[in-house]
């Protein structure tokens, strides 16, 4: 009796041991597989970035050698299909920079005040409603922004243009499709990004900082502008940089509202951006023209990379401050 | 008779349904340190915040009774809260300088109240930092971020920041509980120094500290001011059984 039970015990003990061993090796296997999958996925995105970079450099540089870097970047004549073609993208680069800058100047203050309203002023219910609207705004496809801009904004701009330039004989009328329209559309498009990231940053400012400010006799407005916003600065900078990236890279909406001729970027001029140049010409361009378009793409790519680098720097700065 | 700086009269405070202060009627002497002691959750911070109306900031607070500063009801309609808070300054438990330079931290209050002149601001900053016994440690780095200071230095900077608006009363909510012993000693010495000019009210859960720094002590229990009086008599011959139990470590 005792013997049997001892044997039984021994058996079951061995079985348990075996099972434990099996379980453990099974668990190890799962771990290994999971790790491999994670690594592979991470590797995929690195591979994607690396191969896109390589592709852009390989395809974007030949034209630089054939035409000359100076003649591409700093010449303002864009006549890719003329008998004696000229591939100066100076105005195109300038338009992209001007459009983005104007969008930021118009959009960021409004977005920032909206974020302040949502985080600091609005009662909970209202903040939730406005917040949901902002999120919806972020989800609208860019072509819709373009369409609405074309149907609603451009006519308004045209009327404005007619009024302003009524007595300016040399003015080339754009029908409202101009830099200002593009900047306005872009301003609206970057607002959701700037609002939601700034709002998060503002909400993350510790309550005791506000309390200290109030305890010194500061008003609510003083507290917001002198303590809360400065404390949220790294987050707000991140928001602005992401907004800049969004505006610079936007193609569809601006191609519908900006007119599309290569011009000095002035508010009431029809303009072509880096992105819209690609959208409108890539379909038919061949030979050297096509190669130059790749260079245009490369320039845009470099801009976006620079923006990401500065974003990284801001985030690192913030990490250091948190220590 | 000593001057009475602040008097409360049947003060009741409710957070929604929580009755956090019950019929508190006390007198706080001018140019003295008054310590508030009691187990945690008994309403010390709440009471302190009624003295500069910081409770106005949290939502569902209801207050009954009166708080009189120099005989004037601070909850009367038409009282300028900003002016009140300028007179009744506050230092918090966590040393919490603003994320800006040491100079800007101290100059914050005066600037908010409209002082723009550089010379004036510089004078205020220096005087306040001296008053908080931190001038010698920071005079060479006024333009550096205040976040780089040690915990004890930060707390003294916060005291300087509060002093910069020339208050008459300084409220301190457990100002040393986040500090190491050496910094605690410095802040305690500072409190004794401060009472020459200010009326100081300090919350502490440390009875030794109350005994060391204060002239008067109020013992709070479950929202009631159970016993008030001179620190010496409260600790040596408490009148209330509950005070006796508390200071002998029977609860809390
Ligand atoms: N903002 C608030 N909302 C609701 N209840 C609060 C709030 N602040 C404090 N209380 C409650 O009031 C009571 C007293 O709190 P407090 O004054 O912070 O005590 P102490 O500072 O003595 O530890 C506690 O029961 C606490 O939970
Ligand atoms: Mg407390």
Question: Shape of chain B from CA axes?
Answer: globular
* Adjacency order of strands in the biggest sheet of chain A: 1-2
Q: Report the C-alpha radius of gyration of chain B, rounded.
A: 18 Å
Number of domains of chain B: 1
Briefly note the structural class of the backbone of chain A: mainly alpha
Can you tell me the CATH architecture of chain B?
Answer: 3-Layer(aba) Sandwich
Strand order of the biggest β-sheet of chain B: 7-8-9-4-10-11
Q: Low-confidence spans of chain B: pLDDT under 50, at least 5 residues? A: none
Percentage of residues in helical conformation of chain B: 25-40%
The quaternary state of the protein chains shown equals heterodimer
Query: Structural class given helices, strands, pairing of chain B?
Result: alpha/beta
Mean residue pLDDT of chain A? 92
Q: What fraction of residues of chain B sit in β-strands?
A: 25-35%
Q: If you had to describe this structure to a student in words, what would you say it looks like?
A:
The complex is a heterodimer of chains A (323) and B (252). Chain A is an all-alpha fold. Helix content of chain A is 79%, strand content 1%. Chain A folds into two domains: 6-60; 69-322, MetI-like fold (Orthogonal Bundle), CATH 1.10.3720.10. Chain A has a two-stranded antiparallel ribbon with strand order 1-2. The mean pLDDT of chain A is 92. Chain B is an alpha/beta fold. In chain B, a hairpin with a 2-residue loop joins strand 1 and strand 2. In chain B, helix 3 crosses helix 4 (118-131), helix 3 (102-112) runs parallel beside helix 6 and helix 6 packs parallel to helix 7 (181-194). The relative contact order of chain B is 0.18. The mean pLDDT of chain B is 95. Classes of the chains: A mainly alpha (323), B alpha/beta (252). Magnesium ion binds at residues 44-45, 173 of chain B. Magnesium ion binds next to helix 1 of chain B.
């Amino acid at each position: 009796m005792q013997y049997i039970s001892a044997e039984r015990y021994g058996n079951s003990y061995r079985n348990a041991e075996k099972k434990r061993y099996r379980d453990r090796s099974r668990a190890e296997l799962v771990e290994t597989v999971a790790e491999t999958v994670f690594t592979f996925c991470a590797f995929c995105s690195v591979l994607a970035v690396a191969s896109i970079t390589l592709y852009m450099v390989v395809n974007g540089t030949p034209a630089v050698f054939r035409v000359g870097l100076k003649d591409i970047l700093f010449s303002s004549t864009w006549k890719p299909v003329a008998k004696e073609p000229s591939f100066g993208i100076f105005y195109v680069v300038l338009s992209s920079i001007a459009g983005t800058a104007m969008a930021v100047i118009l959009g960021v203050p409004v977005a920032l005040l909206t974020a302040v309203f949502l985080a600091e002023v609005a009662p909970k219910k209202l903040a939730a409603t406005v917040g949901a609207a902002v999120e919806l705004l972020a989800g609208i496809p860019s072509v819709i922004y373009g369409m609405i801009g074309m149907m609603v904004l451009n006519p308004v701009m045209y009327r404005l243009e007619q009024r302003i330039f009524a007595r300016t004989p040399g003015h080339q009328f754009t029908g409202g499709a101009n830099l200002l329209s593009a900047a306005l559309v872009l301003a609206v498009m970057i607002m959701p990004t700037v609002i939601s990231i700034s709002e998060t940053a503002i909400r993350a400012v510790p309550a005791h900082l506000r309390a200290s400010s109030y305890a010194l006799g500061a008003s609510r407005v003083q507290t917001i502008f002198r303590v809360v916003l400065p404390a949220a600065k790294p987050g707000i900078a991140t928001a602005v940089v992401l907004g800049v990236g969004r505006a610079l890279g936007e193609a569809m909406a601006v191609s519908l509202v900006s007119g599309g001729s290569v011009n000095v970027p002035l508010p009431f001029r029809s303009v072509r951006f880096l992105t819209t140049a690609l959208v409108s010409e890539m379909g038919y361009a061949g030979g050297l023209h096509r190669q130059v378009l790749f260079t245009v793409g490369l320039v845009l790519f470099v801009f976006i990379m620079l923006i990401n680098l500065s974003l990284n720097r801001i985030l690192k700065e913030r990490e250091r401050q948190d220590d | 008779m000593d001057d009475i700086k602040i008097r409360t009269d049947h003060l009741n405070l409710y957070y929604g349904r929580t009755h956090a202060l019950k019929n508190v009627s006390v007198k706080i002497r001018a140019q003295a340190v008054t310590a508030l002691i009691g187990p945690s959750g008994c309403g010390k911070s709440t009471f302190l915040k009624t003295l500069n109306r910081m409770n106005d900031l949290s939502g569902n607070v209801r207050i009954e009774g009166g708080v009189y500063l120099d005989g004037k009801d601070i909850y009367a309609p038409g009282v300028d809260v900003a002016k009140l808070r300028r007179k009744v300054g506050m230092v918090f438990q966590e040393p919490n300088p603003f994320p800006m330079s040491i100079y800007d931290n101290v100059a914050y209050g005066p600037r908010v109240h409209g002082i723009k002149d550089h010379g004036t601001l510089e004078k205020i900053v220096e005087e306040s930092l001296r008053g908080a016994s931190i001038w010698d440690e920071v005079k060479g780095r006024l333009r550096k971020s205040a976040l780089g200071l040690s915990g004890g230095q930060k707390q003294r900077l916060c005291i300087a920041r509060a002093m910069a608006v020339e208050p008459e009363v300084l409220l301190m909510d457990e100002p040393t509980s986040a500090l190491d012993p050496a910094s605690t000693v410095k802040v305690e010495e500072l409190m004794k120094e401060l009472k020459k000019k200010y009326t100081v009210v300090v919350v502490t859960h440390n009875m030794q500290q109350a005994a060391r720094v204060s002239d008067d002590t109020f013992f709070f229990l479950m929202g009631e001011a159970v016993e008030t009086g001179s620190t010496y008599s409260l600790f040596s011959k408490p009148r209330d059984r509950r005070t006796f139990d508390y200071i002998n470590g029977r609860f809390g």
